[in-house]
Amino acid sequence: RVVNAGLIAVSGGNGANFNSALFFNGAHLSCSGLSVGAMASSNTIAISGLGTQARLNGGDIRIGHSQNWGWPSDNRLIISDGAQVDQAGEIVIGQCRTYKDECDRRNSMLLKSGAKLHSKGVTVSDAGSREGVSTGNVLRVEGSGTFWNLTGGKLGVGYAGSGNSVGNTIIITDGAMVTN
């Protein structure tokens, strides 16, 4: 049991690659948000298993994001097998804030196998400032019994702003339910 943990961050800088935080089989987590792949690549947060719960207390979820430098790619958040995540703020998958041509790519979130999520909305690919490219980011919600409530927030893909947002995808399949 992890309580009042502040921000749970897996990788927090350029070169902080191939790291994981795994919460399984009845784990309980209370924190102020999740961050995976801040300016780094191939990092994972997994929340899985019936009875596993994460309460984010309004904190955001950021997957594959850069600020002034870094090229985050292949970072992922997996919520599966009946796990539940409550009180999440906004979710951003792929966020480009650099001047590089391709600054984030192939970051993903997977919600599957009866998992439950309550958040304030989601943006898949945010190239909202500078001149970077946010590409190939994916949100996938799958499986009967899988439920996501956006609590009135937006479901957006490909926000370009002054950058470019290319080839990003939202997939809802196999009986999953997303409500707003």
State the gist of this model.
With 180 residues, this protein is mainly beta. 0% of the residues lie in helices and 47% in strands.
Task: Please write the string of helix (H) and strand (E) elements.
Answer: EEEEEEEEEEEEEEEEEEEEE
> What structural class results from the helix and strand content?
mainly beta
Query: How big a fraction of the residues is strand?
Result: over 45%
What is the assembly state of the chains in this entry? single chain
Give me the side-by-side strand order of the main sheet: 1-4-7-10-14-18
The major β-sheet equals: 6 strands, parallel
Compute the average pLDDT: 87
Q: Specify Rg, calculated over alpha carbons.
A: 15 Å
Model regions low in confidence, pLDDT < 50 over at least 5 residues: none
Shape: globular
Number of helices: 0
Q: How many β strands by DSSP?
A: 21
* Share in helix: under 10%
First-residue to last-residue Cα separation: 30 Å
Explain this structure.
The structure is a single chain. The protein is mainly beta and 180 residues long. 0% of the residues lie in helices and 47% in strands. The chain is built from no helices and 21 strands. It has strands spanning 8-10, 20-24, 28-30, 34-38, 44-48, 53-55, 61-65, 76-80, 84-86, 91-95, 104-105, 108-112, 116-118, 122-126, 133-135, 138-142, 147-149, 155-159, 164-166, 169-173, 177-179. The strands form 4 sheets. A 6-stranded parallel beta sheet has the order 1-4-7-10-14-18, with no helix packed on it. A 6-stranded parallel beta sheet has the order 2-5-8-12-16-20, with no helix packed on it. Strands 3-6-9-13-17-21 form a 6-stranded parallel beta sheet, with no helix packed on it. The chain is globular, with a radius of gyration of 15 Å. The protein starts with 7 loop residues before the first strand and ends with a strand.
